[in-house]
Amino acid sequence: MPTPQTHEDAVAAATELAAALAPGAAARDRAGADLVPTEALDLLDASGLLGVTIPAADGGPGLGAPTLAGIARIIAAADPSIAQVPQAHFLMVDLLAVHGTPALRKTLFADVLAGRRIGNALAERGGKHAQDLRTRLVDGRLDGVKYYTTGALTSAWIGVSAVLPDGRVALAFVERDAPGVHIDTDWDVMGQRATISGTATFTSVPVTLWFDYTGVYEMPQQFGARAQLYHAGIEVGIAEGALAAAREYLVEKARPSTEAVRAGAGRAVEDPHVMYRYGRLATRVRAASALLSDAAADLDEIGLVPSSAAGAARGSLSVAAAKAFGSEVAVEAGSELFALCGTSSTAAKYDLDRFWRNARTHSVHDPVDWKYHHLAAYELGGVLPPNHGQL
């Protein structure tokens, strides 16, 4: 499909993709890394959605943060693992739009608009912090090991962070099938299993496409906030998916408890306690969705490169609130589903526990407690939040 040119077209494309993904979500969850979800990812790549945030000057529609959040939320309600796969892709597009050379943008954006996805290889283990990197780019050759490489296994390109001989950091782009690139399927986790975010090893991989990544997060920017906005969209999508699953089960399968029958309920949905729990949960899911929409609107107004540190802080904190609250509600919805639906809903054939497992796994992607901390520090003391990629 061609790249959607409007927000409404992008939402329609995401809705169509979600409808195609939903029937196989439970099976993909059960299979995990034993079965790479190539068919589902082919649908994603062919949806036209990969290019929606490419700037108009580079041949894309230049759609903003509300579209990005909407895509994440809609797809995640059907299958949050597939929704997470392009999260880093959209970050790479943002980084290229601001820091990529004209030649680099021309090459990679043409591929993205043709449905070729960019995976990530940014995270490492063993360092003192996220930017304590051991991967090296020396004389045009890349060597190193990366972890949590969501999307890399089935991508066309991989964005890899690496240290240059002079100590600067590069963001290099290598083709997935380049010599020396090996992506493993060693992904054995409780939730988000179909992301298959395994280990990537780069052995003397030739690199010609890269830009200086050193000071990206030292200037006022919204790269981190936009990346976190997408993550927040995944959490809200999981919550909405769990609520929809609870509604379907209650209407079609659940029987009222003995106590509810004695109280006069003929159906599970007439149980007053079920009605209370469902109403309360639905309200919290709606509140999480509203926070996500507010954060997306704030980022759209502020822009990808804010004019001031205060503007960047405003966007980051707005997203922090949406991500923190959305994570809590997603975990709650995945658990509350069983309190609503009863013992029979725990049967393995329904795989309804995937909502909780996905939410719990994804919610610890970065510390939620620190988001509340930074919100309080700003509100109570005027302290600007740190300027990095995880807030």
TrEMBL record:
Origin species: Paractinoplanes globisporus
Top-level division of the source organism's lineage: Bacteria
The protein's name: Acyl-CoA dehydrogenase family protein
Pfam families (alphabetical): Acyl-CoA_dh_2, Acyl-CoA_dh_N
Keyword Oxidoreductase: yes
Domain Acyl-CoA dehydrogenase/oxidase N-terminal: 7-115
Taxonomic lineage from the root: Bacteria, Bacillati, Actinomycetota, Actinomycetes, Micromonosporales
Alphabetized InterPro entries for the sequence: Acyl-CoA_DH_C (IPR013107), Acyl-CoA_Oxase/DH_mid-dom_sf (IPR046373), AcylCo_DH-like_C (IPR036250), AcylCoA_DH/ox_N (IPR013786), AcylCoA_DH/ox_N_sf (IPR037069), AcylCoA_DH/oxidase_NM_dom_sf (IPR009100)
Gene3D superfamilies the record matches: Acyl-CoA dehydrogenase/oxidase, N-terminal domain (1.10.540.10), Butyryl-CoA Dehydrogenase, subunit A, domain 2 (2.40.110.10), Butyryl-CoA Dehydrogenase, subunit A, domain 3 (1.20.140.10)
Boundaries of every Acyl-CoA dehydrogenase C-terminal domain copy: 230-367
UniProt keywords, alphabetically: Oxidoreductase
